[in-house]
Amino acid sequence: MKKKVLLMGASGSGKTSMRSLIFSNNPASLTARLGATVDVEQNHVRFLGDLILNLWDCGGQDSFMDSYLSTQQSTIFSHVGVLIYVFEVESRNMTKDLEYYKDCVRALRKYSPEAAVFLLVHKMDLVRGNKVQVLEKKSKELRVASEDTPITVFGTSIYDESLYKAWSRIVHTLIPNAAVLSKHLTTLAAACSATEVVLFERTTFLVIATSTPSTPSTSSIPFSQSHTPSESLQSTQSTQSIPQSSTPTTSSQSTGISYTSDLYNGQDGVYDSGPHKMDPTRYERTSELIKAFKLSCARVREDFHALEMELPEFTAVLDELTKNTYVLIVVHDPSIETAALKLNVRLARRKFE
Ligand code: GTP
């Protein structure tokens, strides 16, 4: 199943930068070297098993935009699943940006009336004042320009987790069986007495689905009884193990990457309600951190396969689930062993393949 994703917006708004961060695993620091996109750059990204994202990165210079809206209109705007339109938060020519945007939405309505529209107010890191107010003001302006077209607006930056949040939500709308995945994850969470189970796509580390909150049982039981317990004790050689630490932040010595424990056990700021005060940005922050961790592993010529964390507050296991996915299991019960969690991941694999 192929889903066409149009990535549009003015030249220099940051389209290719976000594509290179999310789909090519490049660091943000390298995006300054990217040249302007000439016409359309097409990429196929196998996302989940059968789901292929057909990403059209449309160069934003005026001459290209004019051509998309005239001679190339039916080619560009037909069979679109999602339009992602990027606006620079501090654009020097918002009036022109909005004119092009309105023309694109008109063409989209004509050729792909069912397509979803996501607007990214990008480079939010450059805002010096109150970011929330600035984003609200921009969103209002964009809603007016969109007229009757339903839109979803995100504030994003390549320098923080906001980009992962936006793209995870966008990709989630394209996954046909998201509800079934969430149900299986909830079953896995119950089997592990986990607080939460999160499914990530392997290359992009975007969040595909999460378990729904439930009351954990008191002990960790295998997901299915069909394997012998001894198998659970076989350890993966390539697992990156982060040892127990008494400080709130742990770091892997070989890579220098820090993983803060407040993601799943908050001390300050705003946290989800519930007994464990979990940070509401934990999914996208995990995506961002793991991508950085994978880059560091590559730098020291280590393959990244799995990760275990045993902190005083919680235990987390991140392991390969299928060819295209990783699963993160977070447990707040100190009596549950990581080996049991890994056994359950292995037993659950069949359900997700
Ligand atoms: P065209 O290919 O001409 O359509 O441009 P584009 O939209 O693909 O822009 P590109 O990704 O090439 O980015 C332009 C510049 O914006 C680069 O120098 C990036 O480093 C910078 N940039 C991208 N995202 C961000 C961001 O979130 N914050 C800041 N401060 N700069 C960004």
How would you sum up this structure, described in words?
- Helices cover 33% and strands 25% of the residues.
- The protein has 2 domains: 173 residues, P-loop containing nucleotide triphosphate hydrolases (Rossmann fold, 3-Layer(aba) Sandwich); 175 residues, Beta-Lactamase.
- The chain is α/β, with parallel strands linked by helices.
- α7 runs antiparallel to α9.
- A hairpin with a 5-residue loop joins β7 and β8.
Given the C-alpha coordinates, what overall shape results? elongated
**CATH class wording of the largest domain:** Alpha Beta
SSE ordering? EHEEHHEHEHEHHEEEEEHEEEH
Mean model confidence by pLDDT: 80
Provide the CATH architecture of the largest domain.
2-Layer Sandwich
In brief, what are we looking at here?
By secondary structure, the protein is of the alpha/beta class.
